[in-house]
Hints:
Layout: E1 6-20, E2 32-37, E3 44-48, E4 60-70, E5 73-83, H1 100-112, H2 117-126, H3 132-139, H4 155-177, H5 179-182, H6 187-196, H7 201-204, E6 205-208, E7 211-214, H8 216-220, H9 223-238, H10 243-254, H11 268-286
Parallel strand pairs: 3-5
Antiparallel strand pairs: 1-2, 1-4, 2-3, 4-5, 6-7
This protein binds fe (ii) ion (FE2) (2 copies).
Amino acid sequence: MNAKTDKLENKIFRITGLQESKPGGLSRGPKVRLTLQNKAYAGLAAISWNELSGFAIGQVVRVSGDLGKYQEKPQLQIKSIVQADSYDATDLVPTYSGDLKALEARLQACIALIKHEKLRRIVTTLLDKGTELGKKFRLAPASPADISHEPYLHGLWQHTLEVTEFAHGMALQAMRMRPEEYASINICHLVFAGLLHDIGKTTSYEYGNDGIKFALAGRLNGHLIEGYAIMRDALLKEGGFTATEIDRLLHIVASHHGAESDNPPRTIEAMLVHKADSIASQLGSTYGKPHESSF
Ligand SMILES: [Fe+2]
Ligand SMILES: [Fe+2]
């Protein structure tokens, strides 16, 4: 355990993982390992050197202990743990701790980069904060598991902006470095698809007071197909696009997982969105919360 520790006093958590050492075993490790979840932590590793009885996955508890680091990850050494009799359920759902107004301002700035009127109208309509989809886009997590990136409410919004801004920044830099070769990058396509590349996550996950998990659509279809369908419907509803334009835009969504997609990126805009998605999600799942300690 790292020397630097913080005290957690009487904090509310839901138990999402529980592993007990075998009774009578020779192991000199902790007697119990727990994974705990609340508003601030999607999955906090916790250990008890004493045996605990009467606890189970799903139970809501109040915990006190010393929060430090073990192997560069936050770890809580439990000093006391009791069943919680009363609590606010919203305190148990991992939630983005940043400024939502700043996310909204960045979203509007990204939308303003789309000079193509029809594309800008589609994004503005789809992501309007008054619509069901716009609300889900702002509330959904970027992933349901604490092993991946931004697994907390508003995480999709944060991740989408990071991908769009990374992709846009790389496109501008590429055009500056080799203007004759890269001048044809279609910024409207890039930003439009960047903003919608993970829109399928709005239907792929369920999130609420019970926590964050896969929805049936996410388990059966996955967010690439869900997002492809949302974008295709919106393009066809708006109308006035050529088949080539529609295919090139859908390709950015369909290929954004690179080699893990059915088809790898085959246009410069798709390549940039894929690379932006890759760096944003890898940074988030390695150094962002909950992977990096909050102190
Ligand atoms: Fe994705
Ligand atoms: Fe993504």
